[in-house]
Amino acid sequence: MAENLITKEMWIEELLEKYPAAQEFFSKKNIVCVMCGEPVWGSLEEVMKEKDFDDEKIATIIQELNQFIKK
Questions:
Q1: Other Cβ atoms closer than 10 A to 27
Q2: What is the pLDDT of residues 12-55, one digit of tens each?
Q3: Whole-number Å distance between alpha carbons of 19 and 8
């Protein structure tokens, strides 16, 4: 089984530093838009919970983001 590169505990800033292409993914999923100047602080899970994503949706997005990053 392949190891996930990204977890819900990762801080957005760390994630974008390691994987800048994730910004495109975040924008398409309406999670965060750094390009628009939206301030980002906290873990990926915290940011998605602020957007009212439930645990199931968060798990799905993390899985999709890991697939996106591995491409």
A1: 15
A2: 888 888 998 888 898 888 887 666 666 667 899 998 998 899 99
A3: 15
Q: Give the single-character DSSP code of 46.
A: H
pTM across the whole model: 0.81
Distant-in-sequence contacts of 25-33, Cβ < 8 A, 24+ apart: 25/64, 25/65, 25/68, 29/61, 29/64, 31/61
Domain boundaries, the chain: 12-70
Using DSSP's 3-state secondary structure scheme, residue 11 falls into strand
Rounded Cα gap, residues 50 and 17, in angstroms: 22
Contact call for residues 53 and 65 (beta carbons, < 8 A): no
Rounded to the nearest 10°, the torsion over CA 25, 31, 35, 38 is -170
| Measured distance CA(56)–CA(40) in Å, rounded | 22
